[in-house]
Design goal:
The complex is a heterodimer. By secondary structure, chain A is of the alpha/beta class. Chain A has nine helices and 18 strands. Helix content of chain A is 29%, strand content 28%. The N and C termini of chain A lie far apart (67 Å). Chain B is 28% helix and 31% strand. The chains are: A alpha/beta, B alpha/beta. Chain B: GO terms for molecular function: electron transfer activity.
């Protein structure tokens, strides 16, 4: 009961980065507990995935030949069976969209407590998980009074492990109850590209909730025109229908890496940061000096955007 | 058809706040209807308006104060509401997703809905797990992070889009009865009209205790306990431009020219 079981994630033939981050977390926890790290890879080209996941600190990789893509009914059944065979103390899953779609079901089925969206985990007798609340304004520690625990980890929070390992690769013959598979993935769609590709832009002027209403959009468009920049946004602007989906920066939108990212009225929710933290120079204009975007910014103006942006347009013309 | 929408009153912290023990001091918290739940309510109400004989019921676990947010749901077209609360729930520090799922499961048993909508997550504790945990508890099928829904009640199938990372959506057929966790952007939540707000005052709002639901306080026992809360240390090393708006804008203009993204 001191082993760790982590379930890798892949999509459309490629392992997702979080799979390699799971190895980093899992091998540390296993080492702390004197146990082994077991990895599971379910569906797709499992042998090729196992080769890629044969990394330092991994003891056993369980390959499960079960369909091409993620299906939560199958993942739930397979993970439950692996858990019962390995009897790990910790089950590690990604806090990705697909993680959100099956981690609570597994935890519930196994009657194991679940802590989601971990940004740190310590295990010293009991498990203590660090997570955020109130839109990243505070961190909390959650202690788990149970011998076993399921934890979903926030993607991109840990370094990926890339050093080679010598894990045993074992095919796991899962017993799938097809009558319990009540969802069918029928395909994938890419969000419409439109005529602008924000991921190619060198200078992005990006807006968030701080612009308050659609009527304020022309002010920003004036800045965009004056600077020959490209306009992008955080999620709420797209949710409100003020800009099309192809302008959204973030976890569920585009990942951008411009020379300059000018974040106007964007607080910096973790899902947004996932899409823009690779920008060369980040500038934030925000009234709140404690907004999470300030932690990321290279340059900041703590002021009302409606005062600063007109002055900026003047200064540039 | 009956659609049950779980809603939550969430706390939002002001920009400046103090922590008192294991939570932000209540003086710095403002309460509102969870953003994700607004989209879940709208989706249910639109189905009611499109179809025949659909009842939309909302349920929340919350104190009397939460009736304000429930009335908001009623004003937006929900037919009736249930609020679960008693002294034992009030005395509980952490209502984790498994506990909430157990309580909500008792409501599902009473109401026997065909569909359950929840928001993807709550804006305050962001566990993002109650909907799927509930589905597993009640034996419904489910879909998480749904950003488009085409319901085929005759065939007993919900055709959904699930919003994955990186601008990709998954198309999935989900058998009914099911729980769908609703993502923001799936629709455009309406504002409550004055007429709706007036009507909401006379719609049924039923308060239930755990014992009304056939549960005892044992259901609240949780292995999760919050042990610390603190403000994360700022890692920011930003150069902050100081001065009037004219001054700071001038410095930013110089910077943009120096970096070379605008012409000098």
């Amino acid at each position: 009961m001191s082993d760790v079981l982590a379930v890798a994630e892949h999509r459309q033939g490629e392992l997702r980065d979080v799979s390699f981050e799971l190895v980093t977390v899992g091998r540390q926890l296993a080492a702390d507990q004197g146990g082994e790290l077991h990895l599971a890879v379910i569906g797709g080209d499992v042998d090729a995935f196992a080769d890629e996941l044969n990394l330092d600190g991994v003891s056993v990789i369980h390959t499960v030949d079960a369909g091409e893509e993620f299906n939560h009914d199958i993942y739930t059944q397979v993970t439950e069976q692996l858990f019962e065979e390995i009897e790990p103390s910790t089950l590690l899953l990604p806090n990705s969209v697909n993680g959100l779609d099956y981690a609570p079901a597994i935890a519930s089925r196994l009657d194991v407590p679940l802590v989601t969206d971990a940004v740190d985990i310590a295990r010293d007798g009991t498990t203590e998980v660090t997570r955020e609340m109130y839109g990243s304004k505070v961190e909390t520690t959650v202690a788990v009074d149970d011998d076993t625990v399921a934890v979903s980890i926030r993607p991109a929070e840990w370094e990926a492990t890339d050093a080679d390992g010598d894990a045993d690769v074992v095919a796991f013959d899962a017993d799938i109850d097809e009558s319990a598979v009540k969802s069918t993935v029928t395909g994938f769609e890419e969000v419409a590209g439109g005529d602008v590709d924000i991921s190619e832009a060198e200078f992005l002027v990006s807006i968030g909730r701080g612009i308050e209403e659609e009527d304020n959009l022309p002010l920003i468009e004036e800045l965009v025109e004056a600077t020959d920049a490209t306009l992008s946004s955080s999620r709420p602007i797209v949710d409100n229908g003020w800009l099309p989906k192809n302008r959204q920066v973030g976890q569920s939108g585009k990942v951008v890496t411009p020379d300059v990212y000018l974040a106007i009225g964007i607080s910096g929710a973790v899902q947004h940061v996932a899409g823009m933290k690779g920008s060369d120079t980040i500038v934030a204009i925000n009234t709140d000096p404690n907004a999470p975007i300030m932690d990321l910014a290279d340059y900041a103006i703590v002021d009302d955007l409606f005062d600063v942006v007109p002055e900026l347009i003047d200064a540039l013309e | 058809m009956k659609i049950l929408v779980t809603v939550k009153e969430v706390a939002e912290a002001e920009d400046d706040f103090d922590i008192d023990g294991l939570d932000i001091d209540d003086r710095y918290l403002e309460y509102d209807l969870n953003e994700w739940d607004e989209y879940a309510i709208e989706e249910a109400v639109q189905i009611k308006e499109d179809g025949e004989d659909v009842e939309v019921v909302s349920v929340t676990i919350g104190p009397e104060r939460a009736e304000e947010t429930i009335r908001m749901a009623l004003a937006k077209g929900v037919d009736r509401a249930i609020r679960v609360w008693d002294d034992d729930v009030a005395a509980t520090d952490v209502l984790d997703p498994a506990t909430k799922a157990d309580v909500l499961a008792a409501v599902v048993e009473q109401e026997e809905p065909d569909l359950v909508f929840t928001g993807v997550q709550a804006g305050d504790d962001s566990f993002g797990a109650t909907g799927v945990a509930l589905a597993e508890t009640i034996g419904f099928e489910w879909g998480a992070v749904v950003n488009a829904l085409d319901l085929d009640a005759e065939e007993g199938v919900a055709n959904v889009h699930r919003e994955l990372e990186g601008g990709i959506e998954e198309l999935t057929e989900i058998q009914l009865p099911s729980v769908l966790t609703i993502q923001t952007g799936i629709n455009e939540p309406r504002y409550a009209s004055l007429r709706g707000i007036r009507q909401a005052q006379s719609k049924p709002l039923d308060v239930q205790t755990l014992s009304d639901l056939g549960l005892d306080a044992g259901v609240l026992e949780s292995p999760l306990q919050r042990t610390e809360m603190y403000e994360p240390e700022s890692e920011g090393e930003a150069v902050v431009f100081e001065g009037s708006s004219e001054d700071t804008a001038g410095e930013l203009a110089d910077l943009l020219q120096d970096v070379g993204v605008v012409e000098g």
